[in-house]
Amino acid sequence: MPRARTKPKRKPRKAAKPGGGRAKRAPARRRSKPEPYVPRLANLLGISQLAPADITAILDQAETFIEVLKRPIPVVPALRGKTVVNLFFEASTRTSTSFALAASRLSAQCVNFSIGSSSVKKGETLLDTARTIEAMRVDGVIIRHSMPGAAHFLSRRIKSFVVNAGDGCHEHPTQALLDAFTLRRRLGTLKDKRVLLVGDIAHSRVARSNILCFSKLGARVAVCGPPTLIPPHIEELGCEVFYRLDRVLYEVDVVNMLRVQTERISSSLFPSVREYRALYGLTAERLSELNTSVVILHPGPVNWGVEMDFEVAELPQALILNQVTNGVAVRMAVLYLLAGGQVGDTDTAETK
Amino acid sequence: MKQIIDAAELNRLIDRLAADIASRNKKEKNIALVGIKRRGVPLAERLAARLVKKRAGEIPVGAIDITLYRDDLQLVAETPIVRGTEIAFDINGRTILLVDDVIYTGRTTRAALASLLDFGRPKAIRLAVLIDRGRRELPIQPDFTGKTIETRRDDLVDICLEEEDGKDGVFLTLRK
Fold it and tell me: Regarding the domain delimited by A42-172+327-339, which CATH topology (the fold level of the hierarchy) does it fall under?
């Protein structure tokens, strides 16, 4: 089939605000039970562009993909013939693998664009790379880049859908969605739950996306870390700020540990790894202070013995591996919603 | 929109369908029903309730969502929401009775067959529908039919079931 999608797809893109841009809802159908809300997403650039209803709808879809992943043949033909590209300008194994797996579980093809062997080494710009890839006619681009806004930049210049898999210190929306999904599966809801993010809030895109995502779902979010790693005005995102872990740890429902970015330790943002562990690490000793129902998240990879002790991860309420498993289902939902339907005038009508 | 089948007749049709299924599956020990979402599911449950009275033993009921197997996913205007498949039993070696409210083009059934076969290798798959409105686009025919009605391509046939719509009945809307 000729790529009929390119033409009509351009139009809503211009009208929508740059970024997530949701198109208007389809006319109500003549069914008696209310139809579920369908998010019309052009791209997934950040949690900030998503309405709470969009987030809930993505998580609901992910729930159905959990069932698909448990089947003897965990593959469905939904995105047969679609191609997505993993465009990773920063090192990543779990995110790119997770996206590649999600695509293949939906029967889409996923091509990995490896930065080491690409023309980027020869001085190709991001735009050139993107245009080259688009000329190869792909349906979607999953991008990770060290520059905040790289995904936004790309989405305004290419017709394929764009998924932000992390842009510098800005956002990492699929991580936030899978964390919210993991919490929702464990706690039932995030509404009125107290979630504490601990660690390097200033440099963490996971922190930014998670604060936004959890608050949009009704959670009460707080952050905790050394003053040097808490950015000014963070409370404007709607979270409380704590500098002493022991003061707040015992009263929260969820502790979301963040990775200590060891590449920044040398930049004297905190005195030593030992001191960090003593003040902000989720150590075996601190466990005694935790009530047993507190849920522990970590986006990985974990620096064992720095932000978290190995014994802690062994606990039943540590959901680190659930996060990884759920990541595939959540990314399937994202890819399905972005690539599944198509802007056009064919009706869903009766096809019994 | 006019009502072509009322609640009483709809129940008689289900009774007759159940009797037909029972009489033609007397020797079948290992049978399970799988309803196609959405209205095939309550229909499958009603059929199972009637079949259990006619024969000994449990009859498991599953639900299948064919959205991810549709052949028009790339054509529809809006990404359809996936409602999820629930098949809690092993389909290998079983006779599976696929249940839907209406059969029209046959494409839903095709998708359901493809989806079901990804769960294993049933002994046989049969198809039961409440209404056959004709106009098939694929070589698929039901084994058990409640009622056949004549329709034109543009007509809309709406089956209403208590569980989904708050009332029982079949409605036909003629499109100009």
Answer: Rossmann fold (3.40.50)
CB contact under 8 A, B108 and A351: yes
| pLDDT at position B27 | 85
Residue A120 confidence (pLDDT): 63
Domain total for chain B? Answer: 1
- Residue B52, domain CATH: 3.40.50.2020
Question: B119 and A81 in contact by Cβ < 8 A?
Answer: no
| ipTM metric | 0.86
Token reading at A23: 């198109």
State pLDDT tens for residues B108-121. 999 999 999 999 99
pLDDT beyond 80 at A27: no
Q: Which residues of B touch A346 (CB under 8 A)?
A: 72, 75-77
The model's pLDDT over A248-274, given as tens digits with 9 standing for 90+, comes to: 988 999 999 999 877 655 567 788 888
The answer for A 59-88 residues in CB contact with B (under 8 A) is 60-61, 63-65, 67-68, 71-73, 75-79, 81
- Is CATH 3.30.360.10 correct for A173-320? no
B77 and A347 in contact by Cβ < 8 A? yes
Task: Spell out which residues of chain A touch residue B70, defining contact as CB-CB under 8 Å.
Answer: 351
Contact A64 B119 (CB under 8 A): no
B80 CB neighbours in chain A (<8 A) are: 38, 340-341, 348
Residues A346, B82: C-beta atoms closer than 8 Å? no
What residue ranges do the domains of chain A occupy? 42-172+327-339, 173-320
> Within chain B, which residues score under 50 in pLDDT?
none
Say what the pLDDT of residue A23 is. Answer: 43
The domain of B150 spans 2-73+82-173
**A42-172+327-339 and A173-320 in the same fold:** yes
pLDDT at A303 over 50: yes
Question: Is the entire prediction scored with pTM above 0.90?
Answer: no
